[in-house]
Specification:
126 residues, alpha/beta
């Protein structure tokens, strides 16, 4: 599959999509979340039909609004809820020390997606 790299802005996260890695980092408050996330969802949907050995999903949000949260959840659950793929996924949720909201959101995602899911507290998001 083709690689995707989208540089982050003040409103949208940096995105890396390639075989073996799905990574979002930064802020996610796009004016139109569907416009931003739909092509990424399509890429991940196509990726879910490929045979792959292992995929790391890294989520390192400084801030994510409610509309973006829905899209990100749909993106990762697309892979995480497919039984033959779930044992090949490893999700890491980074959150800044003291950011209880992001820690709680990570724990909610962890409880809803049946894969290896690790929360990592950092001194600051990348």
């Amino acid at each position: 599959m083709h690689k995707v790299f989208i540089p982050g802005t003040r409103r949208t996260p940096e995105v890396h999509l390639k075989d073996g890695l799905i990574r979002f980092s930064g802020r996610s408050v796009p004016a139109d979340p569907g416009l931003f996330y739909q092509p990424l969802y399509d890429w991940i949907k196509e990726y879910s039909h490929k045979k792959f050995k292992k995929t790391k999903i890294e989520l390192d949000f400084e801030y994510i609004n409610t509309a973006s949260t829905k899209w990100v959840f749909n993106l990762i659950s697309l892979l995480g809820n497919v039984p033959e793929l779930s044992n090949k996924l490893e999700i890491t949720w980074f959150y800044e020390e003291g950011d209880d909201d992001m820690a709680e959101l990570g724990n909610i995602f962890k409880s809803l997606i049946p894969v290896k899911f690790t929360l990592i507290k950092t001194s600051e998001v990348k």
